[in-house]
Amino acid sequence: MKTGSVVFVGAGPGDPKLLTIRGKEALGRADVVVYDRLANPLLLAHVREGARLVYCGKEADRHTLPQEKINSLLVREAQRGHTVVRLKGGDPSMFGRVGEEAQVCVAHGVRYEIVPGITSGMAVPLYAGIPLTHREFNSSVAFVTGHLCEKNSGKEPDWAALAAVETLVIYMGVKNLPRIKEQLLASGKSPDTPVALVRWGTLGKQETLTGRLETIDQKVAEAGFKAPAIIVVGEVVRLRDALNWYESKPLFGQRVAVAAGQAGESALAQELERLGAEVWPIPLREQSPAIGASQGLPDDFAAYPWLVFDGAPQVAAFFRGLAKRRFDVRRLQSNIVACGKQAANALEERGIFPQFVLEEPTSPAALQRALPFWGGERVLHVSRNESSVMQIAPGIAIHRVQAGVVDWDETHPAAEWFAPDSFDWIATDDPDALAPLSRFAGADWRMRRILCAGADTIRRAKEMGWSEVVECAGDGCDLLQAMRGAVHLYS
Q1: What is the pTM of this model?
Q2: Residue 1 has pLDDT above 80, yes or no
Q3: Max CA distance (Å), the chain
Q4: Catalytic: 69?
């Protein structure tokens, strides 16, 4: 019988790329994932298909699952032989109750391990341009919670001692900021001490408010500044004006939904992130299965003197199908045809060099004109289009099999966070991702502004009927200029 365990994983401060490698590996082998409100839902993309997901988000005065039930859930699932990942925002040990939950595991004889995460108290100030230490300003830092649980409601931090620390990082302190301010001033902290509050740090919606200790609570109230936020008190806050690297990026604050087909993260997504945009990869799933015998294909491909591939996704799907059937690729004797450079590159990566490379995916009639058919031949066309069998000339039959087609995955655990209207842009550099992107965008998708990179993607988007195609074509395309031009044109 499989022995269960609990893995406490720090999800990091918000940006999904700040998850540790070990944390990603733990999510990939989990049977059950119990995750918090501050854990970015995009991290659930690392969870294997079939794993159970349990949301236990906590907000002030509102808990989806009480702590006692969370404890029971962890123990129960582990005792059933499951690997349980407890995904916690930031670092699980920094005001994250990992000690309490680990003690419960010990009491019930459940094995556990802890994967540290990047705590928001360190990462968020840095994303606001505030290093926590600087030899010209300080040599000490203290981390403190501004929120006390009911059990410790009568036990406040030692504010007199904390006032002597040069830099304070306060978690969960927005609600109690007036009280915190009073205690620090009463303990000798200078009224002119600079203070910064950073909300939703490391994300595109990050907000930073700065002021003086004496009046910071008034500024927060006037601005309607809400939790979740990290508070930094100390002279290092003065460095923000010079070191504000993240919020000064040209696309900071722009939220972009990017569809990348089956190629994983795209070059477009990477460039958007480099320019400061908050990129959300749209969850996609393969619509058609990998090629297999169930689709009427013979075990011996000698029956098809010609093999034609529409694109890289079709190549990948074809070879996944061969692997499932344990088909030895050395037995392939067909003439190989790649429709476009992407298909050719995908074949060459697998050590197969096509005899013919066409400019782009093409129609059956165009295949007849482009290829030297002799007659009496059968063509296997691995296509993005629907499966069919057709006779294009006497003795020449094309067996078209749909493969490598993706669709917007509405069943993905992060899908509920993908409201099309919450994004400033939708974008892709993969022509095969345009169809799922249109379904994601909703009924009025033709009227939505779409950023397309690459000539093939631009052409296909226009053919589909997108009315506002923002074009970025060619190796020398200035993405930022294209986006700014579009804002001016369509505003």
Answers
A1: 0.83
A2: no
A3: 95
A4: no
